[in-house]
């Protein structure tokens, strides 16, 4: 089974992904976006949240759920340190995989760690590469909402009294600083290759125990990541105001990926319907099952449509 998702969030006042600081100024991540305006293409730089940031949030949600369900998790991952196997495995203490090769090495690694099972790893010394079964796009403003996205700096003061400054002989204890925050109607897409979880990608193909349990925990981690917006930095003081405008999920027996939710929602649903029909017909397989949740604006009131309507 191949799970694809496309989500649109209305996000206000977020600092999910800053990238650098210059003095007392902290910048938000930006990304170039190309969109068509009349008869020409325009490039603009917009606020963005990297797929790496979102994947980190997903993997930490996966760690928490896996531990609750007694599935194996690497000791580093338990501490929030997502260092995958590489050419030097010295950081992974207690591993029993050092003397194994090829498919046996991959099987041993994923047997020890659900995170590397789902999110992949690469060890060139063992000639083993495991492609991640989970993928996330950058989260960027929807094409139809590019002009409504914005970044602005927020002024803050770190306060310290005179006694503390005298004690530590450091005037920087009390300082002024500015942090950029962004607001936009963001879109996010991605997929989860459920079928490849719990088995090797290198031949001969072998499976670990409790494959179904691993598939379930990967799906549940994805569900809470997307619906509860559990990813990003600075959530303790910059937790954004989030509303799910649309959430589409498809399940198919072959890789089928949903397009980003942009533009008129009725036209988008028509596009998804026609695409799934064509996909199934060309490959002579069952039509991908698509479910969705969306909020449709009627007048000035946001009226929720029944959650996860089947298309």
From TrEMBL:
Q: PANTHER family this protein is in?
A: CRISPR-ASSOCIATED PROTEIN CAS7_CST2_DEVR, PTHR37459
Keyword DNA-binding appears in the UniProt entry: no
Recorded source organism is Saccharolobus shibatae (strain ATCC 51178 / DSM 5389 / JCM 8931 / NBRC 15437 / B12) (Sulfolobus shibatae)
Question: Under what name is this protein listed?
Answer: CRISPR-associated protein, Csa2 family
Name a biological process GO annotation.
defense response to virus
Alphabetic keyword roster: Antiviral defense
What InterPro entries does the record tag this protein with?
A: Cas7/Cst2/DevR_sub_I-a/Apern (IPR002764), CRISPR-assoc_Cas7/Cst2/DevR (IPR010154), CRISPR-Cas7/Cst2/DevR (IPR052681)
What the protein does comes down to: CRISPR (clustered regularly interspaced short palindromic repeat) is an adaptive immune system that provides protection against mobile genetic elements (viruses, transposable elements and conjugative plasmids). CRISPR clusters contain spacers, sequences complementary to antecedent mobile elements, and target invading nucleic acids. CRISPR clusters are transcribed and processed into CRISPR RNA (crRNA).
Q: Which domain of life is it from?
A: Archaea
């Amino acid at each position: 089974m191949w799970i694809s998702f496309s989500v649109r969030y209305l996000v206000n006042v977020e600092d999910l992904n800053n990238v650098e600081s210059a003095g007392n100024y902290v910048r938000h991540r930006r990304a170039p976006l190309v969109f068509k305006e009349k008869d020409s293409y325009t490039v603009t730089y917009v606020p963005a949240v990297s797929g790496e940031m979102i994947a980190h949030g997903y993997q930490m949600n996966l760690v928490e759920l896996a531990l609750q369900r007694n599935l194996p998790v690497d000791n580093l991952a338990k501490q929030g340190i997502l260092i995958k196997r590489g050419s030097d495995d010295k950081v992974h203490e207690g591993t029993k995989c050092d003397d194994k090769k090829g498919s046996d090495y991959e099987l041993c690694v994923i047997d020890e760690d659900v995170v590397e099972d789902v999110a992949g790893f690469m060890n060139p010394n063992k000639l083993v590469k495991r492609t991640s079964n989970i993928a996330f796009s950058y989260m960027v403003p929807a094409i139809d909402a590019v002009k409504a996205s914005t970044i602005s700096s927020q002024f803050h003061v770190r306060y310290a009294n005179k006694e503390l400054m005298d004690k530590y002989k450091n005037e920087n204890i009390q300082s002024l600083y500015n942090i950029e925050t962004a607001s936009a109607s963001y879109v996010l897409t991605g997929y989860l290759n459920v079928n490849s979880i719990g088995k090797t990608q290198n031949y001969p193909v072998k499976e670990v125990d409790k494959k179904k349990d691993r598939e379930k925990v990967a799906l549940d981690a994805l569900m809470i990541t997307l619906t509860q917006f559990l990813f990003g930095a600075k959530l303790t003081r910059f937790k954004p105001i989030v509303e799910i405008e649309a959430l589409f999920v498809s399940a198919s027996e072959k890789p089928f990926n949903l397009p980003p939710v942009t533009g008129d929602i009725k036209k988008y649903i028509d596009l998804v319907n026609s695409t799934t029909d064509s996909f199934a017909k060309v490959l002579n397989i069952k039509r991908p099952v698509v479910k969705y949740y969306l909020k449709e604006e009627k007048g000035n009131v946001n009226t929720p449509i029944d959650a996860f309507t089947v298309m």
